[in-house]
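Translate sequence into structure tokens.
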Amino acid sequence: MAELELGRISLPAEQYHADRSAVSKGWLDRIDRSPAHLRAYLDGIERPDTPALILGRLVHVAVLEPDLLTQQFVTAPQEINRRTKLGRDEYAAWLKENAHKQVVTESQLDLAVAMRDSVHKNKAARALLGIGDPEQTVVWQNSETGERCKARADWLRDFPVDVKTTQDARPEPFARSIVSYRYDVQAGHYLEGFEADRFVWIAVEKDPPYACAVYAVDDVIRARGRAARDRNLRTYAECRASNKWPAYPDVINTIELPRWALNGQ
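Result follows.
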């Protein structure tokens, strides 16, 4: 596959994710675990989709590109009895006809629509999504390492807006999610790529009443995310230069209990 061109570009999500010419936030997460984990991904050793990943994609389309919902997702026909040979043949033909779509359950679709409606009822979220464009990509060359990087904003105004599904959108629990899932690294990466000075999350819960909250990145999150992103990118550049992609250290380490466990004594 040819390298993505530098600058702001418009391309399908499949092409963005299939590209191997530029570093994404997902790559940074993998190399933060170990270079070997990123190498396995780049070599095509993929993890299967999880229900959480499918729901995330479904919610993103429902919220940001509702006109594409029926073009990208489909629910399996309930009238086909797959316990019979005729039913299995009919279902195989149906799958072939809908091979370009993601098959989801009725409950997954209903959940995504409920979460979408909650986002659109939130005044701040509705205002953010009132101006701009969905699924915008930028490709750039990092000035420190010379590595090509890429980012794909869920929604782009003059700054990126990102939709996150979450169990708890209250400030403290969502702040824990920022740390656990390295959302701060995403912010640091995207702010550089889109040359923006703001980054905003729309967090929507996955359980009733599908509460929604909107959070802007502060200076602490920005600095922490940028530092981690820079560290990961330097590791990637070093691994590329040496063609060595180590996993965990092959020595005996002393392990310690996490601080939260000690505090609970």
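Note: The CA atoms of residues 11 and 137 lie 7 Å apart.
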